[in-house]
Specification:
Helix content: 40-55%
Shape: elongated
Radius of gyration: 25 Å
Number of helices: 11
Order of helices and strands: HHEHEHEHEEHEHEHEHEHEHEEEE
Mean pLDDT: 89
Low-confidence stretches: 1-45
């Protein structure tokens, strides 16, 4: 029966009274955003690890690199995808062709809709991707950053290739040995907001403050955006702007390869030191022709492999991301979760003419 016109005010009054009672008990308007955030945080803190739990079969993992055509990250992701086959999972690589955080956001949203069990991301910006990643975690999708971290509240684990401090300080130490601890130096980085790049650069600057580097000066930090042509042009610009430049440090595989290509065909070859992070296959010819004396890197295959097993351990409930938890990473053995959910692969390798022939990646 439809209510009469006279009965409607009574119904409205009754509804208001019911709402008031509900508000007093739990809030008439429902759960707020802040409540949901607190609930998610509380649930994460209350989660308990079961180290004896087996890795689940059929896990779905997605690797989201800085950009899909980055040779270094292709090696990382392919190794992670292959690792998933070892424990009966299925992994894939998806991502943008440009190194923009906004481009990564679109892919994160799609992966959430696809109900992946875990998303592994090399972030182009530590904060810009946080919103969708937090939404992923609320949907019980595990989030693991690798290579370049997000804000720590936006993921459960960060798979770090090596200690950020060791990478930054060692690049200065080794470059200083090549320049005799003298002269102007410049840094050719990736994007301005890349977490890993900025962490390494910060430690480079701290190392340079030591007395033994008093005759060395950092004159410029340039950004090639992990784009080959832009990195090539930035190298050219640095050398023209600073004719007394003694060294360029490029802690990015795209940047160091582009810089080496420019220097190898210029009058700066043999005069300007180039050091940084690169892959043996990219840098082999520049070692052989004398453009570069040495460079460093960890094994990207092991990084992807470790990330894959870490994500699977999270998704299977073996770990939650808390400091001190342990998990088995296949042939890499047992690993321990450190402070702020960081898991470190190990120290980088220095490549030169004596050992570069032993490596193929």
């Amino acid at each position: 029966m439809r209510p009469t016109t006279r009965s409607r005010p009574r119904l409205l009054a009754a509804g208001a009274a019911l709402c008031a009672l509900s508000l007093a008990l739990a809030g008439c308007s429902g759960t707020t955003k802040s409540d949901a955030k607190d609930d998610a945080k509380d649930k994460a803190q209350d989660a308990k690890a079961d180290p004896d739990a087996p890795l689940k079969k059929g896990l779905k993992l997605a690797f989201l690199p800085k950009q899909i055509n980055n040779p270094y990250e292709k090696i990382v992701d392919d190794a992670g995808i292959a690792a998933a086959e070892e424990y009966g999972g299925k992994a894939k690589e998806v991502g943008p062709s440009d190194a923009k955080a906004s481009s990564q956001v679109t892919y994160i949203n799609t992966l959430v809709q696809q109900r992946q069990d875990a998303i592994l991301i090399a972030a182009n910006d530590p904060n810009a991707v946080c919103g969708p990643l937090k939404q992923a975690m609320k949907q019980k999708i595990k989030v693991v950053s690798y290579d370049s971290d997000t804000d720590k509240d936006c993921r459960q684990l960060f798979i770090n290739q090596a200690s950020s401090e060791e990478i930054g300080r060692s690049l200065i130490r080794r470059t200083a040995e090549q320049t005799g601890h003298k002269g102007q130096i410049a840094i050719l980085s990736a994007t301005q907001n890349a977490t890993n790049q900025n962490a390494w650069i910060e430690f480079m600057k701290k190392e340079l403050k030591k007395p033994e580097y008093k005759d060395m000066k950092l004159v410029k930090t340039a950004y090639g955006d992990d784009d080959d042509q832009k990195s090539f042009q930035e190298t050219q610009g640095l050398l023209k702007a600073y004719p007394k430049l003694k060294a360029i440090i490029s802690p990015t595989t795209v940047g160091i390869a582009a810089a080496a290509r420019y220097i190898s065909d210029s009058s700066y070859k043999g005069k300007v030191v180039l050091n940084g992070l690169g892959t043996p296959n990219q840098m082999r010819k520049y070692i052989k022709d004398g453009t570069v004396e040495e460079f460093s890197l960890w094994d990207p295959k092991k990084l992807g492999y470790l990330g894959s097993y870490a994500a699977a351990s999270l998704a299977s409930g073996q770990i939650t991301g808390k400091e001190g938890e342990k998990f088995k990473a296949g042939k890499l053995g047992e690993r321990t979760v450190g402070k702020d959910g960081e898991v470190i692969l190990g120290p980088p390798t220095v490549f030169n003419a004596k050992n570069i022939g032993k490596y193929d990646f």
